[in-house]
Design a protein that fits this description.
Helix content: 25-40%
Number of helices: 1
Oligomer: single chain
Number of strands: 0
Distance between the termini: 90 Å
Structural class: mainly alpha
Strand content: under 5%
Largest sheet: none
Length: about 60
Amino acid sequence: MAEPPSYPGTPHWVKVSGIIAVVVVLLVIVVLFTGVGGPHGPSRHLPSSSVTEPGVQQP
């Protein structure tokens, strides 16, 4: 009996996609934990709590 052909290995595109995914994840982690890029998030577009709107009295 002939032996079945050996498994050729992981396709090249899978290896490249995996490397790119790892690099993106590492970049996101670095940005989140180092604060590079300034303060981001939904609260940066909201006025601070010390600012009051004109014509509105604070309690």
